[in-house]
Amino acid sequence: MKTTLGFFGAGKMAEGILAAAALQKDFDPQAVLMAEKVPARAKELAKKYGVRTTPDAKDVAKAARVIFLAVRPQDLAALAADVKPLLTKKTLVVSIAAGKSLATLKKALGREVRLVRVMPNLALRAKEGMCAICPAANATKADVARVAKILNGAGRTVVLPERNFDAVTALSGSGPAFFAFMEQAMAEGGRALGLPPDAARLLAEQTMLGTAAYLRQSGADLETFISGVATPGGTTAAGMDVMRASDFKKVVAATLKAASDRSAELGK
Ligand SMILES: NC(=O)c1ccc[n+]([C@@H]2O[C@H](COP(=O)([O-])OP(=O)(O)OC[C@H]3O[C@@H](n4cnc5c(N)ncnc54)[C@H](OP(=O)(O)O)[C@@H]3O)[C@@H](O)[C@H]2O)c1
Fold first, then answer.
1. Closest Cα to atom 20, ligand 1: which residue?
2. Model confidence pTM above 0.85
């Protein structure tokens, strides 16, 4: 049976990517082979998407032409030891392993294999993911286009040089937790003003979602948008005065710097 798409690891992120690939017109679930060690998980994915599974990553390495490497970074060495002898220049490996550089991947998987590194985020699972893509020198333009086409089914993609990946890891990789923290702060602020907890969360979350949707749709300049909402003497202006007088932007910048520094450290 012909296998076009493979997965090393069939966890949360792999499922997000599979769901994106499944949206493509020419998607054939029987041409997908996923390596998954846990039988119950393999069964679940086979039932849900109609894909084939195997407990042995070597089967995927032998059969697939495009393989998403979606095991946890600490499992890369063990996986690579198994599959390295089977990967050729005909194979394109797309790694989403956080912190694993193209140089590290090349060393682990062999010089021949074509590589693309991707930094995704969890929102992939809601088809609103943000993925940064960086091809290795031996990957072709067609490789990048192919990867982007799959990932665009689960959100947005941007091609960036690898030197930007620690910053990407901080902003969009870890970002969902930071935005959730902001939502939590807004909901808690609403509760302090007497709102019921569920309503406070809904008001905060839908406002976050709606604001992002409006900004995307209108392409509005952020400062112009803020001034437009904050009419002088009004309620928004009263709140914005507090925000602008605070260290809010400094705290956000320090948050991103800490995450980026940690990403650089882990990648060493
Ligand atoms: N989650 C995020 O927000 C996020 C964001 C950016 C990047 N990433 C990256 O995405 C990758 C996957 O993350 P995840 O959250 O999807 O992890 P996950 O749910 O733990 O999935 C990893 C899967 O790979 C399996 N696995 C490990 N070694 C294997 C092998 N040799 N053969 C077959 N299967 C194997 C694991 O099985 P066992 O459980 O049995 O070991 C597990 O099911 C990681 O490298 C992470 O750095 C994640």
1. 11
2. yes
